[in-house]
Design brief:
Layout: H1 12-16, H2 20-41, H3 45-122, E1 127-135, E2 143-146, E3 159-161, E4 166-173, E5 178-182, E6 189-194, E7 200-205, E8 213-216, E9 229-232, E10 244-252, E11 261-266, E12 275-279, H4 282-340
Antiparallel strand pairs: 1-2, 1-12, 2-5, 3-4, 3-12, 4-5, 6-7, 6-9, 7-8, 8-11, 9-10, 10-11
Function: Involved in formation and maintenance of cell shape.
Protein name: Cell shape-determining protein MreC
Keywords: Cell shape, Coiled coil
Length: 341
Amino acid sequence: MPFGTLDRSPPPFFRQGPSALTKLLLCAALAVFLMVADARFKLTTPLRATVALVLHPVQRLLLSPVDAWDNWGDYLRGMERAMAAEDQARKQLVQQAERLARAAQLQAENQRLRELLKMREAMQISSLAAEVLYEAADPYSRRVVIDHGSHQGVKLGAPVITDAGVLGQVTRVYNFSAEVTLLTDKDAAIPVLNTRTQQRGVAYGGERNDASLELRFMAANADIKAGDLLSTSGLDGVYPPGLPVAKVAAVERRGDSSFARIALQPAVPVDSVRHVLILAPVAAHEAARAEAAAAAAAEAASAAERKAQIKAENKARAAEARAKVEAAKRDAKEPAKEGQR
């Protein structure tokens, strides 16, 4: 038989190997053995620790995308919370700033009202507190409108002052409001007195209706200098004496003129006035005082007359009582005389 026809395959016993059932039983027995050995003798603990140590970098590498995603989400959520907290803080800051400004405004307003009340108590002239509503829309004059009128007792020509000094004069009166012409109006004028030299003059409003005054018709050699305080003289019969009017800002003496050019700064900042005090004119106050004095004198005279009349009546009654007593005595003496006879 030629060699090429020989069957060189292994016998069936070596070609098939152990059966599947045998393999299953072997694997099951090995698993039970390993579990028992691990439970009783801890044989696989070092092996498990070694495998965990070897696989830890791989595990961290595989978890890095998940950790990065979680960290990015936490960052975004933190940014949102921080921005929301910043917005809330900004709102609270704005509210606190508004409250602080309102508190400062109320404090300043209370201070001005206290000053007005002090001035009202110091002056012996009837007065009325009012509030400035708005400035009159007239480019050729300087006027403000107040919230009191004839219904509240405001009179035409009444002086208007603040805690700082004279503001102006009432020029128009309505039922529930009135117009006040400021001292800085170009047609306004007020007699003033230099508190340093006691020299009198007249202050006029600025020619351009700006917030300034001028002291006109003062001699070039007059004793006046920057910083002098000017107050009301009381000669016009409108303003009480001693109220601050203005301060001398600049004095210009020119050789070609016999009068000095004197610029004044008003004592009252006319653009920031809110509360004012309306006074009765001095002439009206003097007339009212004279009428009150006359009424008091008439009342005193009538009281004296009534007192004299009562005294005369009392004397007459006393004389009549004495006459009756004497008559009763005489009547008592006559029967006694008749009995003696």
